[in-house]
Amino acid sequence: MRLFVALDLPEAVRQGFRELIARLKNDCPAARWVHPEGMHITLKFIGFTDDKNFDPICAALAPVRSERPVDMNFRGLGFFPNERRPRVAWCGVEASENLAKLARDVGETLEPLGIQQETREFVPHLTLSRLNPAQIPAREMEKLFRACKETEGKSLGTAHATEFYLFESILKKSGAEYRKLRAFPFVKGSA
């Protein structure tokens, strides 16, 4: 099993990203665009693990709590690692401060199971596309950069999360498919 822990998105946000990706795809059809149905906010990538680890992982995640829900505003498009060497196009997430703590708590609770903590800073985002600049014409990249700049300061949707999920990532030739395996309410008093 290939597992990760993430927040899911409401359908209204997914629909907004369907429309955005359709527009961006016109500007840069050579990019590999994600399917909005699979969009999520990753809290912790676990990776490949034996089926026997499923129950211990769920038991470790069950007590993770936060004082309040996570509120998110999706705003601004950018590139990892940067615009000079773009490999991923993403949408930024402005979130309540408890999102980073929630991600840290999830990582810490899994560490005793041999799942390493993330060493990079937690940067919440939604992946929009994967880019290989060697395979994308320069004029398409320029159109994509311009389209991204046009979204500056514009909200692309909001979400309010009270539970996170353990997902399975199933790798296929058409791209990864995600399946929710278990929900974990994280707001204190909501179990």
CATH-defined superfamily: Cyclic phosphodiesterase
Helices and strands, in order, run as EHEEHEEHEHEEE
CATH class: Alpha Beta
Computed over alpha carbons, the radius of gyration is 17 Å
**Low-confidence blocks of residues:** none
- Please state roughly what percent of the residues sit in beta strands, choosing from under 5%, 5-15%, 15-25%, 25-35%, 35-45% or over 45%: 25-35%
Mean pLDDT: 92
Strand order of the largest sheet: 2-6-5-4-7
Q: What multimeric state do the chains show?
A: single chain
Query: Helical proportion?
Result: 25-40%
User: What is the CATH architecture descriptor?
Assistant: Alpha-Beta Complex
Work out the number of β strands.
9
Termini gap: 26 Å
Helix tally equals 4
CATH fold title: Cyclic Phosphodiesterase, Chain: A
Overall shape: globular
What is the number of independent domains? Answer: 1
| Largest pleated sheet | 5 strands, antiparallel
Strand-pairing-aware structural class = alpha+beta
Set down the secondary structure blueprint.
Layout: E1 2-7, H1 11-27, E2 32-33, E3 41-48, H2 54-61, E4 70-80, E5 88-95, H3 98-110, E6 125-130, H4 138-150, E7 155-161, E8 163-170, E9 177-185
Antiparallel strand pairs: 1-3, 1-8, 2-6, 4-5, 4-7, 5-6, 8-9
Protein model, in words:
The chain has 191 residues and is α+β, with helices and mostly antiparallel strands. It has helices spanning 11-27, 54-61, 98-110, 138-150; strands at 2-7, 32-33, 41-48, 70-80, 88-95, 125-130, 155-161, 163-170, 177-185. The strands form two sheets. A five-stranded antiparallel sheet has the order 2-6-5-4-7, with helices on one face. A four-stranded antiparallel sheet has the order 3-1-8-9, covered by helices on one side. It has one domain (2-185): Cyclic Phosphodiesterase, Chain: A (Alpha-Beta Complex).
